[in-house]
Amino acid sequence: MKILHIYKTYYPETIGGIESFISTLSDALKPHGVESKLAVTTKGKQRVENNVFYFPQNFWAASTPFSFSFFKNFISLTRDFDLIHYHFPWPFADFTHVFRKIKKPSVVTYHSDIIKQKYLNYLYAPLMHAFLKRVNRIVATSQNYVNSSAVLQRHHEKVSVIPFGMARTQFPTLPAKDLEKWRARFGENFFLFVGVLRYYKGLQYLLEAIEGTQLSLVIAGSGPEMDTLKSLAAEKKLSRVYFTGYVDDRDKAALYQLCHAVVAPAHLRSEAFCLSLLEGLLFEKPLISTEIGTGTSFVNQQDVSGIVVPPKDSQALRDAMKKLVHDKNYYLTIKNQVRTHYLEHFTVEKMANAYFDLYQGLL
């Protein structure tokens, strides 16, 4: 079985949850005899590297790359594949699928509603619904997101739910010296945020939550909001907030092992699942997240794997962090429940089996 994944960009130019998901799923499907390749756009030249077809970008508009060569070559590109697997949102892929009149079996993983471009969305909506009507199956990453998404509700008859999966073996086993490097900098009682620093991550509210406390916070990642957040931390004189910049899997593993708990304070629905919460489960850490009507409250369930608080509520974030520090019995209870929660819902085998069954049903 040959699968062609479609997304707007990929490693090494962009790093994020969708890129990680595509890589994880492709690897997990290999034991099923599935050969996966990917087509994306690039700032560089047209090329094929490591099973990825890169097509040059002509321009960007509203966070969307456009590539004339991608559109032109799409039919010939898809000819050798059994099924096309799109990763939404990328409006130019919708346009290509609809106007090139693709007949191949197709699946779209619906990673998130489009939140930021509210007014442009009115113009885009007819194309989006035409695309979703034409694909064979839409996959949401949680029932929570299906319930709260007007788009998915409109196409509910073709929606399946397959949560992300992950394996501890995706992270390296570390020698003691690697842990010591980070322990020397931050100790072991810090709260940890991991991810790209984007506008919807709610980190300003997390910094407000830290203000006036003795809590320590490590923010691991880079992104467009880095300078703004650093300025806010300096303005508030938050001496126990540390920005690491980009971290690779080796350093992430060390930080997850050393941290007290993982925090994901997103305040907008653009945070559809939050892989760092899933990574926290892998390392058996309690979680703190916000109730934004998405998969974050499926990954982190109140009093099962951690604490769920309202969005944009710095006081609630502060209270949740203090509870995990001061209420030892609660902390240990949650910590002991985390692995069971992970095994029930989020193993990479469960995800791979579900997608393989879905693919087979369409061929």
SS-based class: alpha/beta
| CATH hierarchy, class of the largest domain | Alpha Beta
Radius of gyration from the alpha-carbon trace, in angstroms: 21 Å
How many structurally independent domains?
Answer: 2
- How are the strands ordered across the major sheet? 3-4-2-1-7-8-9-10
The CATH superfamily of the largest domain turns out to be Glycogen Phosphorylase B
Number of strands: 16
Dominant shape: globular
Q: What is the makeup of the main sheet?
A: 8 strands, mixed
Count of alpha/pi helices = 15
Q: What is the mean predicted local confidence, pLDDT?
A: 95
> Span between N and C termini?
9 Å
Catalogue the unreliable spans.
Answer: none
CATH 2nd-level architecture of the largest domain: 3-Layer(aba) Sandwich
Proportion of residues in β-strands:
15-25%
Helical residue percent? 40-55%
Task: State the assembly state of the protein chains.
Answer: single chain
- Under CATH, the topology of the largest domain can be stated as Rossmann fold
In words, what does this structure look like?
The chain is α/β, with parallel strands linked by helices. The protein folds into two domains: 2-165 and 347-362, Glycogen Phosphorylase B (Rossmann fold, 3-Layer(aba) Sandwich); 168-345, Glycogen Phosphorylase B (Rossmann fold, 3-Layer(aba) Sandwich). The chain has 15 helices and 16 strands. Helix 11 links the parallel strand 14 (261-264) and strand 15 (287-290). The longest helix is centred in the C-terminal third of the chain and has 18 residues, at 328-345.
